[in-house]
Amino acid sequence: MDSEEAVGTTPSTAEGPDEPVRPAIPAQPGSFTDMQTSTEFGELRRAHRSFAFPLTLAFVSWYLLYVLLSNYAGSFMDTIVVGNINIALVFGLAQFLTTFLIAWWYAKHAEARIDPKAEALKARMEAGE
Amino acid sequence: MSPSTVLAGATAHPLAAGGAGEHRTLIITLFSVFVAITLGITVWAGRQTKDATDFYAGGRSFTGFQNGLAISGDYMSAASFLGIAGAISLFGYDGFLYSIGFLVAWLVALLLVAEPLRNSGRFTMADVLAYRLKQRPVRTAAGTSTIVVSIFYLLAQMVGAGALVALLLGATGEGSRRWIIVLVGLVMVLYVTIGGMKGTTWVQIVKAVLLIAGTLLITVLVLNKFHWNLSTLLGRAAEESGKGRAFLEPGLQYGKDGTSKLNFISLGLALVLGTAGLPHILIRFYTVPTARAARKSVNWAIGIIGAFYLMTIALGFGAAALVGPKAITASNESGNTAAPLLAQEVGGGAGSTGGAILLAVISAVAFATILAVVAGLTLASSASFAHDLWANVIRKGRTSEKEEILTAKCAAVVIGAISIALGIFAHRLNAAALVALAFAVAASANLPTILYSLFWKRFTTRGALWSIYGGLISSVTLVIISPVVSGNPKALFPGLSFDYFPLGNPGLVSIPLGFLLGWAGSLLSKEAPDEQKYAELEVRALTGYGAH
Fold first, then answer.
1. Which domain, by its residues, includes B247?
2. Is the Cβ–Cβ distance between B39 and B187 less than 8 Å?
3. Which of B23, B321, B486, B538 is the most exposed, having the fewest neighbouring CB atoms within 10 Å of its CB?
4. Residue boundaries of the structural domains of chain A
5. Which of B119, B198, B27 is CA-nearest to residue B454?
């Protein structure tokens, strides 16, 4: 972490390494902050976060539930459903199914709720507003 | 359950080294054809590679579907094909966790990482982090962890390659094993240095199609033997495993005691959080023109990879049922050769022409798989070396594009040499377990910083450095003092004993630590978070404004 000191606290223009990642942008320095605090951008952020965050929490919990049940609820997971197929296998296959469904659901959501908003704001910034 | 009548002739034979002549020629022929075709593609792609965007990001010219196939090709490694089939064939249900974790993990990439990364980054993972944090220290850290994760991953692939060679050439093939690993290393360096990202992407696409086709063929042949009845297949696998119904239940490998149960949780956590931190996967999102195409490519990848992992049920349990654990462990202690042995069995058994042909085909597919994945890893790590460490840290941004690309090519040669050396070393470990370590390092060192950078206003450079170095050092140290490296006959150094940490996978400790350090480092920073830079990053990440 000593490399932090090597750079110094105030990145000056002479350092140069900033250029490769940040291309020339017509927008004024303050315009990103203006955009970030605008109502429309707030809506775009909410459209993404209010969908992605709870869903991430949900599928990670659902997956961890499966891991924990496999570990600590052996007799439940060993219950036979039909033939040699037990609850553990059904649970595993259900993880596949929910993964496919969530991927499909997010794609639908993004196309309907996120993409149009993002494109409108992008166009607005490119117009140099 | 007595499906034995169906399988009267299906007793397993360990592959005798002596009778390997005919399939050896066939494998070498098929593999040479694959190498010739892919090198041809690479040369063609190399001619179209003119600037850095071509070399690092394939000119951002791929479609969502093409990139989805390429992601699948990059992701379905020797660990997935050889490792999982082996783990299921030996430990039954517990091996299946890999398939589930490896797939579910894609949702993290889809929902949180792929699109903002595509919008705000350029060539490497560190591009996104360098946006709002101090470039040089953060690039140094991210470049280091990229290379460490990639080398763990490379090691797993080389172990798979070594196991295959040992299977095909028998115990007499120790010298040949080395030569083939050297050959794999050389070809992968050629792919990367000549073809760059464009060439490597096409190699992934060809390989993904071959792997899916090969796996589908074996799956159909296995299920056909059991009259398309999964229950019968599972019953037979349980019977042949010698473990009975326990083979189909959780706990055979990880249920022994409290420690092994914790190890299972640790592994599960590393798998689900690792994918979105794997550098060679992250840079694939840069090969498409827009965030929308990045999302489409992840969705395709989830479909393709999901279908593949469903088929690992047939591969793994099929190998247990038809080849049997005795023959599998006789060939490779960790089960890495279960899939090719199964191919030989469903083709008609050892000694039959059908068996020899299928063994050759599946082995060639496995070699192609390994070759493509190591090429992707070499590209990711050499790109990070050239773009992050060389151009932006060492040369402080004063390089030409030409010099940067040349550096990347030299780095690819060095990384190729490192992986060849490692591959000659390690061969007792299960490829899937090894890859899980790469996942743990990625989830501990990379994922927290990526998520904090994209979504947390108060994140600072100190937070990033604490998180990356803390996650990296803790996960690697815990691996070094784990039972994977020493203290038991299956370890990397079986003769030594410094296994102070009981878990085979460090994720349970190092992942929360990585997140915690990122949070604590940010709060304890002297510098205030750069709000203007975060505004710029957030706006660009979400809208795609100014994306390259």
1. 59-543
2. yes
3. B486
4. 28-126
5. B119
C-alpha count within 13 angstroms, C-beta hemisphere, residue B486: 11
Identify the pLDDT of residue A24: 45
Select the residue of B106, B137, B531 nearest A7 (Cβ to Cβ). B137
Q: Are B119 and B542 in contact (CB under 8 A)?
A: yes
- Residue B413 has φ and ψ, to the nearest 5°, of -65, -45
Whether residue B53 lies inside any domain: the answer is no
Amino acid residing at B209: V
Q: Is residue B11 part of a domain?
A: no
At residue B256, the pLDDT reads 85
CATH number at residue B166: 1.20.1730.10
Instruction: Give the angle subtended at the CA of B446 by the CAs of B334 and A46, to the nearest 5°.
Output: 125
CB contacts of A48 in chain B (<8 Å) are 542
Element (H, E) at B39: helix B21-47
Q: Is the pLDDT of residue B5 over 60?
A: no
Residue A13 exposed, middle or buried by CB count within 10 Å (0-12, 13-18, 19+): exposed
Chain B: nearest CA to A1, how far in angstroms? 7
**Domain assignment of residue B110, yes or no:** yes
Better pLDDT: B167 or A101: A101
pLDDT tens column, B304-351? 999 999 999 999 999 999 999 999 998 888 898 999 999 999 999 888
CA dihedral angle for residue B529, residue B533, residue B536, residue B537, rounded to 10 degrees: -70
Q: Which two tokens stand for residue B329?
A: 């462990």
Cα(B126)–Cα(B120) distance, integer angstroms: 11
Most B-contacting residue of A7, A56, A71 (CB-CB within 10 A), to test interface: A71
B321 touches chain A (CB under 8 A): no
**pLDDT per residue over B99-128, tens digit each?**
999 999 999 999 999 999 999 999 999 999
Quick check: is B44 in a domain?
A: no
- Is the interface score ipTM higher than 0.85? yes
Closest CA to B17 of B342, B346, B350: B350
Tokens representing residue B250 in the block: 């959780």
C-alpha distance from residue B256 to each of B262, B300, B508 (Å): 11, 38, 18
Does residue A27 carry a pLDDT above 60?
no
| Residues β-bridged to residue B418 | none
Taking Cα atoms as reference points, which of B219, B169, B214 lies closest to residue B369? B214
DSSP letter (8 states) at residue B59? G
Question: Which among A74, A89, A118 has CB closest to B255?
Answer: A74
As for how many domains chain B has, the answer is: 1
Residue A85, φ and ψ in degrees, nearest 5: -95, 120
Is the pLDDT confidence value at B162 over 90? no
- Which residues on adjacent β-strands are paired with residue B486? B493
